Amino acid sequence: MENNKLLRMDNVGIVVESLEDAISFFEEIGLKLEGRATIEGEWAGRVTGLGNQCVEIAMMATPDGHSRIELSRFITPSPISDHRSAPVNALGYLRVMFAVEGIDDLVSRLITKHGAQLVGEVAQYQNSYRLCYIRGNDGLLIGLAEQLARQ
């Protein structure tokens, strides 16, 4: 590990159908929109391996500014597969977990305002956490955890 030059993790990327809906959903959780852009051309395709591409992106940041989600809506080429209905134990499946306060209120707002669905239930782990998985409006699997007891 002495030669490791890792500085930080910059972001997690999520491909979505509707950028507007995804931005609104993540804003409800508490992330802030940092910016939007359209990335296109052959140079971008050299990075992704997709050739000439056009993608709209939105960068969302957590309130502490340490974590980000890059939301992407591909215009060209179109997405070729959909893993949103895969169970949480599917290989390569992506889930993002957020530490929150007021989990019951947040879950209720996400369901009411954004059509989210609770995957199982809000469950308590010992006297430490209340946790749940929720599927967002675009089918994205999101974890929410509220710490009960400070360790």
TrEMBL record:
UniProt keyword annotations, A-Z: Metal-binding
Entry-linked SUPFAM superfamilies: Glyoxalase/Bleomycin resistance protein/Dihydroxybiphenyl dioxygenase (SSF54593)
Pfam families from the UniProt entry: Glyoxalase_4
Keyword Cell wall biogenesis/degradation in annotation: no
InterPro entries membership: Glyas_Bleomycin-R_OHBP_Dase (IPR029068), MMCE/EMCE_epimerase (IPR051785), VOC_core (IPR037523)
Domain VOC: 8-147
MF terms (GO), sorted A to Z: metal ion binding; methylmalonyl-CoA epimerase activity
Metal-binding in keyword set: yes
Gene Ontology terms describing biological process: L-methylmalonyl-CoA metabolic process
Protein's name according to its UniProt entry: VOC family protein
